[in-house]
Task: structure prediction
Amino acid sequence: MQKKTDRIQISEIFTSIEGEGIFFGTKTMFVRMAGCHLKCLWCDTAYALPMKSGHGYTLGYVKNLISKQLQPNTYKVNFTGGEPLLQHESIIDLAKFIKEEKGLKTYIESSCFDSIRFEKVLPHIDICKIEFKMSDSKVVNTKHYANLLWNEIQCLNLSIENHKTTYIKIVITGSTDLDEFKNLMKSISIHIKATALAGFIIQPSYGIDEPTVERLFNFYDIVYPIYNDVRIIPQLHKVIGAR
Result:
């Protein structure tokens, strides 16, 4: 567990256009945390993976940075990474500051690898993207994959039970197994009611093992009978050249 500390390791803070998920197109401040112990094949922020990457700051200094850089009409502040839950105590502190002092929505992008940490952060978060990692992502080895999936399911349950705006995202590559995806959908549908979701996003991988449109339809057709608001949405910020 992260030790209670006044310091936080930040990769970068910037404002851009949200390019993923159900809130794509919104003006968003991104607080990118440094450090991630997972190794997704299609990771596009490899520079933020080392725990010692970025810069170490006091929480007070980061709050000051956020205040100075916050632009008018920003819709939300997105805690991303890296892996935000590795510094969950710091996320709690910053999220409280953003909600109470700035009056903005808070959003977390996490692998949901630890449902205990997730539950601690949750009271201070408005929007939760629950990302299920398929095994072709190579996020963890086979031995630890079942545990990751269990924690992701628990985080999904917690987010819905606490009435957060909750949506699911799954990255699909040219190698994603269709039967594995079917089994995942069965597991999800057992644990939650589809009406509790704010969205379901199928995101094609970009630049690595990209799936064809026909292949994406195969996955869409599995979700649609269960949740017909499913969407296939690429990373739009890359399409328009945004950060």
About this structure: The radius of gyration is 17 Å. The chain has seven helices and nine strands. Residues 7-239 form a domain with the TIM Barrel fold (CATH 3.20.20.70). The chain has a mean pLDDT of 95.
